[in-house]
Here is the input.
Amino acid sequence: MTFAVVGTPGDRRPALFAAACRSSGLPEPRLTAWTDVLRGAEPVLRPGDLLRVDSPGEDPEADALLRGPGEPSRVGGGARWHRTFTAALGRLSASASAAGARLLGDVEEIAVMFDKRLAHARLRAAGVPVPPALPQVDGYAALRERMDAAGERRVFVKPAHGSSASGVVALQTAPGRVRAVTSAFMAKDGLFNSLRVRAYETEAEVAALIDALAPDGLHVERWLPKATVGGRVFDLRVVVVGGEPTHAVVRTSRHPMTNLHLGGTRGDLSTVQRALGADGWQRALDVCARAAACFPGSLMVGVDLLVGQGMKRLAVCEVNAFGDLLPGLTGLPGGPAEGLDTYTAQIRAALPVCTT
Ligand SMILES: Nc1ncnc2c1ncn2[C@@H]1O[C@H](COP(=O)(O)OP(=O)(O)O)[C@@H](O)[C@H]1O
Ligand SMILES: [Mg+2]
Here is the structure.
């Protein structure tokens, strides 16, 4: 049994997956570059192969093929990215079927996970707790109207097809005041991702920011005030493999976004487990399992789980199709991935599939 992988050569993900294959006694996976797939190449597949699709990562060439040419650090182009990416996934799925191989994942589910509006609606319809969303907005004026109508003072505005907090805005308003916290930097020639989280506090700037993000589609939801540990807000990234929550990390931050590249740091899981209590922790895992169950064709998903102040409220803010890059993290004690990294856990979960 051999894995074939679509990913970016030199990226950590396929390297870590290959290491997991080696340590599981499996042959070296065959890697096809995303850039080749995006240019129309088909991966070499043999009957029985399992085809793993990984994130293109931060490869500028793949990015240009997905979003079109331009500065790789720019914010935006998500709608085009999504169209190109899902079309490529469709071709990969067809190649796998034609070769008698099996795509580990589901094209439609990945497409939904990469559209925060659709993913939110799917979770909500399944009764999974999510922050309430506002109806669609096409710019700042509509956003403020919707917020007023819904009585919302604090919202998260997210590009529908974003990831890694790109273009995410934590917006709070009070009479005569507005404050937008974001890692996006407004330059004369557009919006750019930066590693620094900053605040825009004039209405003209905030309006320009939201209006620049809007054409690619926005998902707006209530800002759930997050619980803190050690004076920092946190959320949880819970990896669910084969329907079971296997790995969890606490992501803490001084900012409203906890993404690790923006200065978020891993927090102590046992502190959070104690604060939640045994019942609360079990509830948190159950919510993540129910979120993953909305994507039954996905071997692995990474659930971002918000824990509200007071440690009672739980809400899923995102389900990531490629949420497993957590180097060195081993599975939850007592669970099916105890002692295993996220990649080995997926290999174990996928193996029975190919022997049946
Ligand atoms: N509704 C919300 N309330 C509070 N914090 C949120 C909310 N939505 C997202 N966040 C925070 O913002 C960050 C990014 O949001 P997320 O939905 O995961 O998008 P991305 O795809 O950019 O990671 C996360 O760290 C999360 O904790
Ligand atoms: Mg996230």
In short: Residues 304, 318 surround magnesium ion (ligand 2) (CB under 6 Å). The chain has three domains: 3-104, 140-222, 226-349. The chain is about 35% helix and 25% strand.
